[in-house]
Design goal:
By secondary structure, the chain is mainly α. The chain has a single domain, classed as 434 Repressor (Amino-terminal Domain), CATH 1.10.260.40. It is built from 4 helices and no strands. The protein starts with a helix and ends in an 8-residue tail after the last helix.
């Protein structure tokens, strides 16, 4: 799965809108929008940290 789809899936699995997701992770809205659109590539370690935080805080509504 490419980065754009991974970040969008994480956000939807957490049941968050893009604004809520950005606020939760303190990431600019434009950055997340560009990641999801495939205009910018997110470093893999950033995604892993985001996913880890969501898992630890039990925010995912869907088990992957």
């Amino acid at each position: 799965m490419d980065t754009a789809n991974k970040i969008k899936k994480l956000r939807t699995d957490m049941g968050m809108s893009r604004i809520e997701f950005c606020d939760y992770y303190n990431i600019p809205y434009r950055t997340v929008t560009d990641w999801e659109a495939g205009k910018r590539k997110m470093p893999e370690y950033v995604f892993e940290l985001m996913e880890y935080k969501a898992d630890v805080e039990q925010l995912k509504t869907v088990n992957t």
